[in-house]
Design brief:
CATH superfamily: TolB, C-terminal domain
Shape: globular
CATH class: Mainly Beta
Largest sheet: 4 strands, antiparallel
Number of helices: 0
Structural class: mainly beta
Order of helices and strands: EEEEEEEEEEEEEEEEEEEEE
Number of strands: 21
Number of domains: 1
CATH topology: Neuraminidase
CATH architecture: 6 Propeller
């Protein structure tokens, strides 16, 4: 289900138990609506904050054929253009970004499986910055690709280790969660990794330069294991959701 918390981590409400199968990512729309990407149901849903369903994109329980390019096969994230349009990362079963109108009509799609510019090996997260550029965490290629609003390739950043999510901050920085590597793992290139890179949170400039970050792949409070998602609240506090053996939500405040 969807779990609604206050800023101190206290549960205020739950909803969606009969509909949501696996809410892979949740985002807040420009009209304060709640959007979920359900990678088990193969849908993207729009809700009110009280849990009333407003729109469904995709056909419940009917995935498109794997790597067909048609929406959806295990979608993973959603983001919003400056015009209110909707970008969806499609995700685990496709190697595709889909662009929809605010009403859910498909405008365009781009991407295919591969390692070349504009290709993806698990487009795990999508985000839009204040200028309208579209950022995609191309996780198993260990890079972040950047596109124009209509899907034209601009550039990409390396220096990230299996990026799970990217979120623009109000200060102009970009916040990236990294799943990390263990020695010997092979990602999109097929080449085994020669060193361990811990999971963590990386802070970057809008040109892809590293500013700072943390993580240590331990269960100690403040360290990060399998950092999956990051959110920023009105006070610029950071919330990092950890998956797999992490299985927790941590809050980091500004000091």
């Amino acid at each position: 289900p969807m779990i609604v918390l206050n800023k101190d981590g206290e549960i205020l409400d739950t909803w969606g138990e009969d509909t949501i199968k696996w809410a892979h990512h949740v985002e807040i729309g420009p009209d304060d609506s709640v959007w979920t990407t359900d990678n088990h149901d193969h849908t993207v849903r729009k809700w009110t904050t009280e849990g009333k369903e407003l729109m469904v994109i995709g056909t419940p329980d009917k995935p498109s054929p794997p790597q067909s390019g048609e929406p959806f096969n295990q979608p993973t994230d959603v983001a919003f253009g400056l015009d209110g349009s909707v970008y969806i990362a499609d995700g685990y079963g496709n190697s595709r970004i889909h662009h929809f109108t605010p009403q859910g009509k498909l405008i365009r799609s781009w991407g295919e499986r591969g390692t070349a510019p504009g290709q993806f090996m698990i487009p795990h997260s999508v985000a839009v910055d204040p200028t309208g550029l579209v950022y995609v965490c191309d996780r198993e290629n260990s890079r972040i690709q950047i596109f124009t609003p209509d899907g034209q390739y601009v550039t990409h950043w390396k220096g990230v280790h299996r990026p799970n999510q990217i979120v623009p901050g109000k200060d102009g920085s970009m916040y990236v969660t990294e799943l990390g590597f263990k020695t010997g793992m092979a990602a999109g290139s097929g080449e085994p990794n020669v060193a361990t890179h811990n999971s963590g949170l990386k802070i970057m400039t809008k040109t892809g330069q590293w500013l700072g970050g943390w993580g240590a792949s331990t269960h100690t409070h403040g360290d990060l294991i399998a950092a999956h998602a990051v959110g920023i609240d009105s006070e610029n506090s950071l919330y990092v959701g950890e998956t797999l053996e992490g299985a927790r939500l941590q809050k980091f405040i500004r000091v």
